[in-house]
Design a protein that fits this description.
This protein is 40% helix and 18% strand. It is of the alpha/beta class and 167 residues long. It has a single domain, classed as Rossmann fold (3-Layer(aba) Sandwich). It has a five-stranded parallel beta sheet. Helix 2 links the parallel strand 2 and strand 3.
Length: 167
């Protein structure tokens, strides 16, 4: 049976750490592939740029990676986590599915709609995030006009520059 991960997040912007964490999860948990599922515009978070920009940046980062796949089918359209997970389970009923999230988000899961249902019915892979590289750090450096070359991929940096994001 295929083992598939679903990595939800804002990806505001996607960083080198996002990809490195998933590469590690694929190896450690013997996953066949991982779908990136970005949060939609209805998700309430400070400094969150429109989903279409975050989706485009993910597409740029993942375009040549066979184990990691971008999927915008679920959360960009305003589903709650429980609704999203239910839809994924219907579509991927012939695989063993894992929901991947950073420990920072998992620590807040009790505040989510239907969190008891989420905890009882789904399998999780919780990743310890390396705070040396974070989307917040990228945004902070960009606002200060500092280099982000050690935090994000070149294609993402160029996209941010071309679209005048995070000013």
């Amino acid at each position: 049976m295929e083992r598939i991960g679903f990595f939800g997040g804002c990806f505001n912007p996607p960083t080198i750490a996002h990809i490195e964490l998933i590469e590690k999860a694929i190896k450690e948990h013997n996953l066949n592939k991982v779908y990136f599922v970005p949060m939609g515009d209805k998700y309430q978070k400070e400094n969150l740029i429109p989903a279409y920009h975050r989706i485009k940046m993910l597409e740029l980062v993942l375009k040549d990676n066979m184990d990691m796949i971008f999927n915008s089918v679920y959360s960009p359209y305003g589903m709650t986590a429980a609704e999203c997970f239910r839809e994924i389970e219907k579509e991927f009923k012939n695989s063993e599915n894992f929901y991947i999230m950073g420990s920072d988000n998992f620590d807040k899961i009790e505040s989510w709609s239907e969190y008891e249902f989420l905890m009882q019915n789904f399998k999780y892979i919780i990743l310890d995030r390396d705070e040396k590289i974070s989307s917040r750090k990228v945004r902070t450096r960009l606002k200060k006009g500092q280099s982000v070359k050690d935090l994000i991929y070149e294609e993402v940096e160029q996209y941010i520059i071309d679209n005048k994001l995070y000013k």
